[in-house]
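Entry for zinc ion complex. Fields follow.
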Amino acid sequence: MTCLECKKELGYVDHKNAMDSLGVELCVKHHKRMQELIKKNDTPLEAIQLYYGLKEAGVNAMLEWWNGKKSIDIAISRVKLNIEIDSEYDKLTEEQAINNLEEAMHSFKNGFTTIRIPHIVVRYYLNETVRNIIGIMEGLKANIKAI
Ligand SMILES: [Zn+2]
């Protein structure tokens, strides 16, 4: 059991605390830092889990990236991919849905691709989600080369 951020060895209690509250293995310092980030940005837990899932797979992503207008849950700048975790997609109103579409349109115009992932997909299919994102990144990279 080591911290996913700094590789520090974790004791039983520290490991349990981090797993119980975030679902990821973090030392006391990085656990605290993550909780401050959540408090500040209202970050969904699944965004943190996906961020570390991507990191484990060797993908360099940013958590809570400020794009000048809003904070994006996860951004992969190399291929200009923004990932938003939909926590309450089941309660999505038509107004929120059209706002999401409009946001996606604006980010496309700026060269960014936005994908929205329902939080339960991250929770139950983390490995598959990571694999699909890596596939999307490869597709985007190929398209960038083609232009
Ligand atoms: Zn750490």
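NOTE: Residues 3, 5-6, 8, 26-27, 29-30 surround zinc ion (CB under 6 Å).
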